[in-house]
């Protein structure tokens, strides 16, 4: 394993973590009770998910190779990549629209009727899945020559660490932006929802443009 391969994996990790970084900013924006412990939990979930999905993608290719011909395997992989791309798009769009609707609704409500958004483990897990599911395709790329059965775990660990660091920074950045907004929750929700919708669109665009 050469340093050139390690560098490529690091670049993969940075590219993959951009989705998680964007969503972690959203979390920092909309969760009113965010603290260092919860930021670490969010970063940990995003890091594990961004490592797990490429690992699943890698072993999925190995499985396809074992049970199908080369041509059949290639077709199956392309179908899987397309499906997970649209699943990620759907999840991000739906969550984003929900947040924008909540934000607009709160803008119209009186202060005493506004519901403050607080940290929810289930929601963070859903965010983790939504931002990482398209990373299954990266597992296909790793299987194409960058990784092998003895190095894949090291490579996904590098991706996990990079994602954790950037996601933690993202939650702190989101909190700082919220302070600039003077705690206006409804504006934070609209901004956060818009980020998720743009991210969902980007997932599909990047897939079809091969970015």
Protein architecture, described:
With 211 residues, this protein is mainly alpha-helical. The chain has one domain. The protein is 83% helix and 0% strand. The protein has seven helices and no strands. It has helices at residues 3-30, 36-67, 70-108, 121-132, 136-146, 152-180, 185-209. The longest helix is centred in the middle third of the chain and has 39 residues, at 70-108. The two termini are 25 Å apart.
Give the topology.
Layout: H1 3-30, H2 36-67, H3 70-108, H4 121-132, H5 136-146, H6 152-180, H7 185-209
Helix pairs in contact: 1-2, 1-4, 1-6, 1-7, 2-3, 2-4, 2-5, 2-6, 3-4, 3-7
Helix-and-strand structural type: mainly alpha
Distance between the termini: 25 Å
Shape: globular
Number of domains: 1
Q: Over all CA atoms, what is the radius of gyration?
A: 18 Å
Main beta sheet strand tally, sense and closure: none
Overall helicity: over 70%
How many individual β-strands? 0
Helix and strand element order? HHHHHHH
Number of helices: 7
Low-confidence stretches: none
Short summary:
The protein has 211 residues and is mainly α. It has helices at residues 3-30, 36-67, 70-108, 121-132, 136-146, 152-180, 185-209.
